[in-house]
Amino acid sequence: MNVVIVGADSRKFTEEQLRIAKREIASLLINYQANWIDTTIISGGCPVGKKRWYDISCDEWRDVDDVDDHLTVEAYDQGGIDTLAKIVATELWMKFIEISPEVNQWNDAPNCAKGFKSRNLEMVKMADILYCISPKCYNCDEWGRTGTDYDADNMEWSIICTKCKGTKSVWNGGMWTSFEAERQGKKVVRIVVP
Asked: What is the pTM of this model?
């Protein structure tokens, strides 16, 4: 089973939300292990921050992989959910595939280098199930509405929060990917971190 995990980068989470998100990912993956489901974890290799080594044994970031007897993983230190999925999958000794963009932009480059959108569509194609983990939107109420956002196109006050588009979580590329996966008939689970 291919389990795709997407979401926001670290800049959109508080430190506490990142800790909660890591526990959520661990809980999901342990459930697959406990049920003896042959699982491959797939995530996007978000290129935010600095590429460093995460020492799983010490639960800390390092600039070099200088400890031979520690389990480490190379990832971007602000990669958010993509980085957490890679760390947790490594901790649990699960198969992991990272689908990284070739250029740091939404659309493909003129030289055909793959951007975020193509990378996300590739993950959707591979997915048996897709989990999207995002922080809670603090701009709207529990129904995804504010009533205070002005919609300039329609010249009216919008009832739907323009920050989260009514999803109740901060809008990000992972949310876009989850809606595209649903459109393609894939099973999607959205987790909003309070």
From this structure: 0.83
